[in-house]
């Protein structure tokens, strides 16, 4: 089927299963790894800022952050800035889980590259980055 939506969603589900299975060794799911890595990268920024950078609906992000906060991997604090914003910070426990998870990520990453072949993998990444560049900043693609 030559449908962009169908094929990207199917591929996403396949990859999610692969990563979820692998990340069980680190005690988290693939989506939690991705979010924890995002929080680490944007450490100390507001929920709104992280949602904007990651192209995630703010409400969905807040819900997912609550799971990481309950696990003690992040802290969500009131910002000192006006506007009642909340800032997100990774904890030492979160850093430890992320470090352990990076080893798992490297293994599954190499498995995917090996199965696809280096040239196909590089082409896939180039195409995905092109797709992101073309659409992530257009007005109709913003999640809010």
In words, what does this structure look like?
The protein is mostly helical and 144 residues long. The chain has one domain: Orthogonal Bundle (Arc Repressor Mutant, subunit A). The protein has 6 helices and 2 strands; from the N terminus they run ααααββαα. Strands 1-2 form a two-stranded antiparallel ribbon. β1 and β2 form a beta hairpin. α1 crosses α5, α2 crosses α5 and α5 crosses α6.
Query: What value does the average pLDDT take?
Result: 92
Highest-level CATH class: Mainly Alpha
Q: From N to C, what is the helix and strand string? A: HHHHEEHH
Shape: globular
Gyration radius, to the nearest Å?
17 Å
Number of domains: 1
Distance between the termini: 31 Å
Q: Count the E strands.
A: 2
Q: Low-confidence spans: pLDDT under 50, at least 5 residues?
A: none
Q: Structural class of the helix and strand makeup?
A: mainly alpha
CATH-defined architecture: Orthogonal Bundle
- CATH topology-level name: Arc Repressor Mutant, subunit A
In DSSP terms (H or I, runs of 4 or more residues), the helix count works out at 6
Largest sheet: 2 strands, antiparallel
Tell me roughly what share of residues is in helical segments: 55-70%
């Amino acid at each position: 089927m030559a449908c962009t939506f169908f094929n990207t969603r199917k591929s996403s589900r396949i990859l999610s299963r692969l990563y979820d299975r692998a990340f069980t060794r680190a005690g988290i799911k693939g989506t939690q790894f991705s979010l924890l890595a995002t929080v680490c990268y944007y450490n100390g920024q507001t929920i709104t800022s992280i949602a904007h950078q990651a192209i995630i609906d703010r409400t969905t992000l807040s819900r997912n952050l609550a799971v990481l906060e309950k696990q003690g991997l992040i802290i969500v604090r009131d910002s000192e800035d006006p506007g009642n914003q909340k800032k997100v910070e990774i904890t030492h426990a979160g850093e430890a889980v992320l470090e352990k998870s990076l080893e798992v990520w490297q293994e599954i990453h190499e498995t995917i590259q090996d199965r696809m072949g280096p040239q196909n993998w590089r082409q896939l990444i180039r195409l995905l980055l092109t797709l992101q560049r073309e659409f992530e900043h257009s007005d109709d693609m913003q999640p809010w």
